Each structure stands twice: as structure tokens, then as C-alpha cells.
């Protein structure tokens, strides 16, 4: 049946179904991809289709606005939304709630969303919602007074919305509010909520992203090609054309070429987001845009009451490290290939031999890390297959020379390199010979 264009906007007369044979079917059509949205297996059980991949390949990048004026009615009823009750003007509860909401969004969608807008049109929300009453929650002058103001307004959208409101019957008693005060209070609250979200993002999520980049630029630089045949996305984005590409043949050759992973662990650092603003010649040290810190809010990440300038005792970092590798890289077999702490002893003015041999801090260090290692195996089922201390003997350290002594055995550099077992050697030997309470706490009597 043809419907003339001139009548398309008018309801047809008669029965549409009656004009067709009995059993004729009518319906509407749609498609899953075009309307359903979520494709993550976690949310829906449905994995991405070729169209999901195709759309992502086109480079579409979302910009997400956290607040476009839709305050939950429950919060409006509880404390006035962005116009806090007078009893809480100095500490508007909506600021904390907005921060929590932003935290949820950053945490949930941050892996896909890299650009966030906190508040859309704050002027419109404050002015039209609380000054002239044309936007929700509709506070401001009465409708007759409002119309006089709007006739002088340079904002036609406000005038049009006002006409709509005049033709509607409010389903609630309109609170006129205080249009000489309320918009300014709302604007201040919006600014506080905005600042809370931004500070949260900078403090927590930019630094979390920096921590991930730090892992990518150290561990992922070499592990990711073994897993996927290519470098981490963050490296490709930040290094660009300076990062040599793998050919398809090279990628296939590298991918999967491991039987286990050997990890070194000594200490841990905090990561802080540090955009490269040098505008100078590119440098590998700046490419990750990360600054490493050993303390946060003035508190060291771990004990540092030893001579090393770079080792802070933080056994918990070993667990974090192992769980990250387990979850990120397909639960591989792992060996801890190096773990240890040094004692500074300058050969030009050496410590007394008895003091150099009494390495109680090293024994404590090993105790703590072995305890963490056992937790990783027993509680989290990390496939750790072996543990190696660093080091058997005091040795030459690459860029520090002889003063840092990591060995279980003391080497006398001034007397024909004679060797003496330290306390840690006796502890390790005893620990390996017979079962000890765990975590191992045995230490010999001091002499």
C-alpha cells in the first residue's frame, strides 16, 4: 500500500490489518549490535563481534561527561543536591558523593575512557536551574516574573523552555528559592565537586596509569612480545616511530618463546605521573612519563635503615609483582632468580670482621620475603617453582664497585680473597637441611 507523502503525517483511517490477508504478519526490525551496547563477556556473556573490532579500528575515542544536570532525585530530597541545606553549607555532602561517583566511573571505565569532562554547562545549570527556574529543579522567580526577565534575555533556548513550563501543570509545589543567592551557592558547590573529582583522578588514577606504564616500560617491554608478539600499547603510543616495529615473521618467531619466567626482586617504588615537558630531544628515561618515588606523604615505602641507597625493604611488593605476572601473562611458571639486600663496607676502611659477618638484617630480609613467597603459592596458587638469593659471595657490583656486599660469604679483598661464612649462610644452610617453623625465624646465638 502506498501512502502519499502529503498524508504521511496523518493517522490512516480504517484497519491496516484488515486490508491484508488473514495470517499476514506485521512487525518491526532491529539488530543486536545497533542497539544493545555492552559486549564484554563479564557483563553479558557475549564476546566482541567483527563490528566491535572494526569500530575500534576506526579510532573512535570516547569523551565522557560525568554530570549533565541529572541529579538523582534521592540526593535532591535528602540534602538539596548542589544547593545544600544551610546546615551543611561549609561541607556540602554532594561533593563527597560526586567524588565517590567519579571514583566509580574512573575505576570501572578508565581502561577505555581516557578523556573525562566533570560538569557540562555549569553556568546553565546554576543560572537556569536556580535563578530563572527554566531548568530542573526549577527554582527561581515565579513564572510571570520569569517571563519578564526572559523577554530581556539573550538566551532564546531559555525563553522556549519557559513557554513549555507555562503550558505544563507542575505536579509538585514549586519552591521559588532565592534567585539572588542560590545560583552563587550552586556554582560554588559545582566548583568544589569538580575539584574533588579532578584531585582524585590526579592523585589516584593518573598515578595508577603511571604505575602501569612503569611496568610496561620495564617488564612489559620484554614480556609482552613473548606473549602477544608486540610491544605494550603504552610504549607504542608514547615512543611512536622510534620504537622499531616487528615484522609479521619476527612477531611469530618471538611469540611464545618461553617455558618459565625468571624474576628479580629487591625493592619497590611508588609511581607518579610526570608528563614530559622538556620539549627537548627524546630520551628513553622520559618516554614512560613516570617519576619513581621511594616515599609517599613523607613515609618511606619500606624500611631503609641499611646502607643501600636504593633498596627499601618492602616484601609486600613481591606478592604484588607475582600476582601481576600471574594475571597479566597467562599464569606462567616463575622462578625468583634474584632477591637480596646489601651491606655497605668500603674496602678502604672496612668493618671489623665480626660485624661484617653478623648480617642479621639480611636474615630478616630473607625471612620476610620467603614468608610472602609461601603466601603467594599457598593462598593465590602462583606457580613459583624456585627461589635464588643474591648472592653467594660478596662481589663486584656493576656501577658501585666493591663496597655493596650482597654475599652469604664474606670476601676479604685485602687478604688473598679469603672467604668467611656470614650469619645468613649458616641460616640458609640450616633452613635447607631440616624443616624449620615457617616463616623461618632461626638465628644462631650471638658470639
From TrEMBL:
Q: Which GO terms describe its biological process?
A: carbohydrate metabolic process
Transmembrane annotation, as ranges: none
Mind listing the UniProt keywords for this protein, alphabetically?
A: Glycosidase, Hydrolase
List, in alphabetical order, the Gene Ontology terms for molecular function in this entry: beta-glucosidase activity
Matching entries from InterPro entries are given as:
GH, GH_1_N_CS, Glyco_hydro_1
Write one Pfam family the protein is assigned to: Glyco_hydro_1
Task: Please give the name of this protein.
Answer: Beta-glucosidase
Organism for this UniProt entry: Escallonia herrerae
Q: Which Gene3D superfamilies match?
A: Glycosidases
Q: Which family does it belong to?
A: Belongs to the glycosyl hydrolase 1 family.
> Which SUPFAM superfamilies has this protein been placed in?
(Trans)glycosidases (SSF51445)
Amino acid at each position: 500500500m502506498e501512502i502519499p507523502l502529503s498524508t504521511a503525517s496523518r493517522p490512516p483511517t480504517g484497519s491496516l490489518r484488515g486490508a491484508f490477508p488473514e495470517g499476514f504478519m506485521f512487525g518491526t526490525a532491529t539488530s543486536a549490535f545497533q542497539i544493545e551496547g555492552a559486549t564484554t563477556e563479564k557483563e553479558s556473556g557475549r564476546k566482541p563481534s567483527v563490528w566491535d573490532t572494526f569500530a575500534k579500528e576506526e579510532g573512535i575515542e570516547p569523551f565522557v561527561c560525568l554530570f549533565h544536570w541529572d541529579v538523582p532525585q534521592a540526593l535532591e530530597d535528602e540534602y538539596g543536591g548542589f544547593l545544600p541545606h544551610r546546615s551543611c553549607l561549609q561541607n556540602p555532602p554532594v561533593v563527597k558523593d560526586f567524588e565517590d561517583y567519579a571514583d566509580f566511573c574512573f575505576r570501572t571505565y578508565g581502561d577505555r575512557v581516557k578523556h573525562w569532562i566533570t560538569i557540562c554547562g555549569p553556568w546553565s545549570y546554576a543560572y537556569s536551574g536556580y535563578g530563572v527556574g527554566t531548568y530542573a529543579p526549577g527554582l527561581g522567580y515565579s513564572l510571570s516574573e520569569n517571563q519578564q526577565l526572559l523577554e530581556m534575555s539573550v538566551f532564546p533556548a531559555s525563553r522556549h523552555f519557559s513557554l513549555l513550563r507555562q503550558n505544563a501543570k507542575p505536579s509538585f509545589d514549586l519552591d521559588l528559592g532565592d534567585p539572588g543567592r542560590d545560583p552563587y551557592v550552586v556554582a560554588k558547590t559545582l566548583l568544589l565537586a569538580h575539584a574533588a573529582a579532578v584531585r582524585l583522578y590526579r592523585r589516584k588514577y593518573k598515578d595508577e596509569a603511571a604505575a602501569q606504564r612503569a611496568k610496561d616500560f620495564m617488564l612489559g617491554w620484554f614480556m609482552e612480545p613473548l606473549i602477544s608478539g608486540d610491544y605494550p600499547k603504552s610504549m607504542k603510543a608514547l615512543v611512536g616511530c622510534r620504537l622499531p616495529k616487528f615484522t609479521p615473521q619476527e612477531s611469530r618467531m618471538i611469540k611464545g618463546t618461553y617455558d618459565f619466567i625468571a624474576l628479580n626482586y629487591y625493592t619497590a617504588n611508588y609511581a607518579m605521573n610526570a608528563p614530559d615537558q622538556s620539549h627537548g630531544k627524546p630520551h628513553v628515561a622520559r618516554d614512560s612519563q613516570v617519576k619513581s618515588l621511594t616515599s609517599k606523604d613523607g613515609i618511606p615505602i619500606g624500611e631503609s635503615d641499611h646502607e643501600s641507597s636504593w633498596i627499601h625493604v618492602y616484601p609486600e611488593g613481591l606478592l604484588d609483582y607475582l600476582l601481576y605476572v600471574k594475571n597479566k601473562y597467562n599464569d606462567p611458571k616463575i622462578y625468583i632468580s634474584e632477591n637480596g639486600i646489601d651491606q655497605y663496607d668500603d674496602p678502604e676502611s672496612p668493618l671489623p670482621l665480626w660485624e661484617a659477618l653478623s648480617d642479621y638484617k639480611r636474615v630478616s630480609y630473607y625471612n620476610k620475603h620467603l614468608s610472602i613467597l609461601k603466601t603467594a603459592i599457598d593462598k593465590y596458587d602462583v606457580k613459583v617453582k624456585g627461589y635464588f638469593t643474591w648472592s653467594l659471595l660478596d662481589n663486584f657490583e656493576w656501577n658501585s664497585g666493591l663496597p655493596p656486599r650482597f654475599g652469604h660469604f664474606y670476601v676479604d679483598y685485602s687478604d688473598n680473597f679469603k672467604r668467611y661464612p656470614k650469619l645468613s649462610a649458616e641460616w640458609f644452610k640450616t633452613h635447607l637441611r631440616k624443616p624449620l617453623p615457617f616463616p623461618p625465624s632461626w638465628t644462631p646465638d650471638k658470639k
